[in-house]
Every structure is written in structure tokens, then in C-alpha cells.
Known about the structure:
By secondary structure, the protein is α/β, with parallel strands linked by helices. The chain has one domain (about 1-160): Rossmann fold (3-Layer(aba) Sandwich). It is built from six helices and seven strands, in the order E-H-E-H-E-E-H-E-H-E-E-H-H. It has helices at about 15-25, 45-50, 65-80, 100-110, 130-135, 140-160; strands at about 1-10, 30-40, 50-60, 65, 85-95, 115, 120-125. Strands 1, 2, 3, 4, 5, 6 and 7 form a seven-stranded mixed β-sheet that branches. Strand 5, helix 4 and strand 6 (about 115) form a beta-alpha-beta unit. Helix 1 crosses helix 6. It starts with a strand and ends with a helix.
Amino acid sequence: MKRLLIVYHSMTGAAQQLATAAHAAACDEVECRTEIVRAGDAGVAEVLAADGYLFVTPENLASMSGRMKDFFDRVYYGVLDQVNGRPYATIIAAGTDGDGAARQIQRIATGLRLREVAPPIIVRNGAQTPEQILSTKFVLEADLNQARNLGAAIAAGIASGVF
């Protein structure tokens, strides 16, 4: 059976809600086993066992979160040249931008020779002040639906061999 790995990190809840929504929809694809793992707990074995990936992270200071970067740092050389061509997509939870984190993941994925199968979804919550940025987030249903649609699509694509 094909496998989709969802790797995420979240500090204030938005990225976790998006990852969970994508995971729930991906699990509806019966021909694709879907696993969701926190970035701090994911390693080489999980990456190698998967046929495709969904990376979900907040944007912090115009970059992916440090935990997500740590994940890539820990697995990069252990999976290099072993995951070539595998599909991936990205969801970014951001205040007002998100492009920096998306570009950073695209560059790493290019180095791993992964194949981007959907443009990054960037969910902006508008947080600007320290209080807003640090507060618990509640993702809008429309944004959760975007995550669900991406989770279902990537799982179906992996299961059917389209990707």
C-alpha cells in the first residue's frame, strides 16, 4: 500500500489544525496509508517509508519554523538520492506573508529532488503584534477546506500512481 507522510510543526495551533485537516481527508483515501508526525519526531525511517509528503509549518521571521528546519537538517543526507521524484506539497501558516517559508522548503525539496505536485497553500491570519503572533490560532473553515482538499488530492494521486 502506498504511504503519505505529513510532517508538521506548530506553536500556536494553526499549522497543527491544517495538518490535522489534511490528514483526516487523506485518510479517506483507502488505497493510501497516511501518517502524521510532528517534525521533532520524524526521521529518516519515516521519510524513506513514504511514497509522498506533505510539509506543514508556520512561518517564523520569514522562514519555516526552526523545528521544521531541524527535521530537514536531520534527514537530508540520510535520504538524499533515495527519494528522487517523490511528490510533495506544502502548507504554510503565516501572519501576513508566508512566501519566505514556502521558498525555503521548495529549495530544500529541489535539493532532495522531490517533485512539487501543488503550489504551496499559504494561510494568512493577519497577526502583527507580539500578542497576536503568540496567541492561540483558530483557522477558518475555508482554510481548513483548502488543507482537506490538498490532503485528499495528494493521497489520491499517490494511491493511483499519478504522482
